[in-house]
Amino acid sequence: MKKLRYLITNKYLITGIAFAIWMMFFDRNDFPLQIRRIRELNKLEQNQKNMALLISNTQKELELLKTNPETLEKYAREKYMMKKDNEDLYIVTFDSSSIR
To answer: pTM of whole model > 0.85?
Structure first.
């Protein structure tokens, strides 16, 4: 009983607990904010990895376009719908509402 009374009336313990609660929940850099920042950092790091992969794939594709004329022709036909003079070009599109 005496130990419990000592703990309740100890001003340093009460001050320390109040300070810890203040820092955890009411401070500008509280725990929920830190958790949100960590999650955002993880998302940004994942996005950075995805962008690095996309950049490396684009660089490989660019190198192929610079070195291989068949790849350049294929790329022009697919991306820009270019055609030769004696060819007809048919574009088939699918309506997403009609596909089930």
So the answer is: no
